[in-house]
Every structure is written in structure tokens, then in C-alpha cells.
Amino acid sequence: MGNEIILKVRNLNVRLDYQSIIENLYFEVKKGEVLTILGPNGAGKSVLLKTLLGLLPCKGEIEWAKGIKIGYVPQRLPFIKDIPINIRDFFKLKHSSEKEAKEILNSVGYREDFLQKKIGDQSSGQFQRILIAWGLLGNPQVLLFDEPTTGVDISGEETIYKLPAELKEERDLTILLVTHDLSVVYKFSTDVLCLNKHPICHGPPQEVLTPESLRTLYAGEVKYYQHQH
Amino acid sequence: MEYQFPLSLVVGIFIGGAAGNLGSLMLSRRMALVAGPLGHLTLHGIALALIYGFDVSSGAFPFVIFGIVLIWLFEMRTKLSMEALTAVVFASGVAITFLFLPMDQAEAALVGDISRVRLAEAIISVVAAFLLFLVVHNIYPKIVLVNISEELAKSEEINIKKYNLIYLGCTAIIVALGVKMVGGLLTAALVAMSASAARNLGRNLAQYAFGAMIIGIISSFLGVLFFRLSGFPAGPLIIVASTLIFLISLIFRR
User: Fold this and answer.
1) For chain B, which residues score pLDDT lower than 70?
2) At CB < 8 Å, which residues of chain B contact A?
3) Complex ipTM
């Protein structure tokens, strides 16, 4: 991991539909880091990722290193199965050449002839790999993952998380990963950002994930399940 | 007139092809049925065109634009589902039209009449359908990505508002052209049927988009041909032909 800072976030505030989703967030990401954004459901993790991509309005400062290329792997694409589209077509929507499409497909573990497979025929796990390949098209230096195992069975989850870790070494990537799964943080991250509307902790998981910080992080979620008799 | 049949055939083929092609985009957006209420709204324009004797598409076009603005406003203001908006627009379109549409003209307004198309109208329709095909071909990959996910499209720096506007403009034109051929009642079927059949048969985007266009062309050709042979109105025959192709496509579904 280098010392070169590729992302600086200063005093980030996001409001959607008159509701505050993220407040007073500060953090930095260094080149080669695997930063996991951890938090309970509704904590603003996916919103943060989309805000970093410039997809949502915000207040504050988001500064990416100059000329950086970002790849985005969305959570899921429910409408894609309505369209008779094969993997080659899907990659072409991102202006990829045939050569690049084949290379990327190989690097996520598929043979070249997979390009002609219809996306609607793929299992959730296969589709997630295709989405990772989509994120890698255009040779980005940073990859943003939004809950990559949504809808994938447990046996497929491990593979999905292993893949970006392998690709990181192969392609010198910096990765920002959204998850609510604590085990992912220890296995695959160099750093963790705990978020529940406010930042709770930030740093190497072994140092910052204390019982205290986890209690604070998930406290917001607990209150939703309280029974009041 | 001797040239009337080939003229109707050419107009039908061009409009049917363009409608199928655009229909494949509309279907992938789950918006094929929007052509229905828009078609019904054009009934006012068609009625005026029939009463005062000008081109049906010219009468229909301003009403389609009005319909698009109306649906957009309803959606923004009420958050009603597309089905509810369809019902509102459909009902009002048909009810108001029949207040002043002469009953002897009702058939042409409801199911179209391509048999009376004049040379100038035919040239305008063919040119408009061809230009529409070019525009749709040009925006196709961008709109497909928007249809898959607006977020993904935004992350690829696609100007969604711009492409949506072009797409709606194309929808307005195809509805205005379509009502000439199949009337206000059957416009949704004109765009949806060929695309549905192509979706059953296609395994990739090119097969889907061009398949829908070819099925649109074949349906229109068969519809106008059977009109010539049987004397039944061409509009419903075109839709019956595309329905048959759709049923056949179910057998060969991939």
C-alpha cells in the first residue's frame, strides 16, 4: 500500500427527500487500500458510494486524485433480465473492444465463448462475476463495490469476495467495498470505515473494531427491533 | 387509384418497421403500454383531422405531445402508478372524442385507415419513419443502459434527461404515424407486439432490435395485403398478423 492519497472526503453531508443520510464525514483513501464501508441496513453506505461517484447531490468536499479512473459494480440490476442481451452486448454498452471483453472475462474466470451467453440465463453468482467484469472494463484504478453478494448463496459469497482481492494484486487496484457483513472486513480489508449516518470509526480493522465501536455502530439498528408493550 | 395499394403498402412497411424497432426499446423499459393512452389521446386530433379533411398524423401529433406532458405531470404530482395513469388518460381520451366525433368517421379514428393515404402524406410518413429509425439506432445503446439502470448510466456519464427527451420525442412521432395506420385504439399493440415476438426469438440486442423491426415490416405487409384481398380494415389485420407471429414465436422461444 502506497502513501499516495487518491480520495479525500471533507465534511460530507448528504440529504435525500428532506432526510439527513450522512453527516460530517471525513476520511481519506490511500492507493492500494481495500476500504470496507461497514454499517447496519439504512446506515447510508450505498448512498456514500453513489455520492462518491457523483450520482447524488451533497454538501462538502469529495476530491479524487487527478485523472483517476473509477469502476463501479452496482448492487444488482433487476431489469436487465427483461432484455434479451448477451454478455458481449452488455460490455459493448461500455464501449469495450472484443479483445478487452475477452481478457476481462478470462480474469473473472470465464472462457471467451461465454461472451455470447444471454445474461438472463445466468445464476446470481455468475451474474455478479459479470458485474465485476463490467466494473473492470476501461482499466480503472479504483473499484467501487456495492454489497456484491446480494442475492448470492453462501457458497458463492466467498468466491465473490475472493475475486476482487485477487484482482487487486493483478491490476494494482484500490477497492472501496460496501457491506454489512463483519466477517468480510477481517478477511479482505486493509481499512474499515464504520458508518451509521455519522462516522463511528476509521482505520485498520484490528485496531478500530472494538466491542465498544461495534456496539455504537449497530445501536441504531437495535432500536428498530425493540418491542414496546 | 392504381398506385393507392403500393402507396399504402410502402407507408405500412416503413411505419411498421420503425414502430417495431422503437417498440423493442419501449418494451425493455416496461413502457410499451404508454403508447396506448397516448394513442387514445390522439383521438381528438384524429377526429379534427377527419372533420376538416387534413392529415391524420398532423392532427394527432400535438395531442401526443399534450399526452406526454400530461402523463409526466400526473406522475410528478400524484405518484400514481402507470396503470392508473393509463386508465385516467384512456378514459378521458375516448370519452371526450366521442362527444364530437361524427359516428361515420369513428372506425377510421379507432382502427386507422391507411387505404386513403395521399402521396404527400406518404412521402412525409416514409421520411419521418426512416429518420426515426436512424435516431433510434443512434440512441439505442444509451437508452438500453438507462433501462437497465439509471445509476449505471449516470456512472458512465450519460445525460439521462437528454436521452429521455429524445426517446419521448421518438415515441410521440411513432404514435402520430401509427394512428394513421392502426388508429387510436391499436397503437400500443403496434409497438408492443413485434417487440414481444422478437424478445421471444432474440438472443442478443441486435437480433432483438432488428427482429422487432422485421416482424413489424412483415406484419404490416401481411395486414395491408389481406386488406386488399378481403376488404377488412388494414389496421386490425396488421395487429392480427403480428399476433400470429407472436404466437408462432412462442413455439420457437429461446
Assistant:
1) 1-2, 30-33, 79, 81-83, 86
2) 27-28, 30, 141, 144-145, 147-149, 151-152, 154-156, 198-199, 202-208
3) 0.81
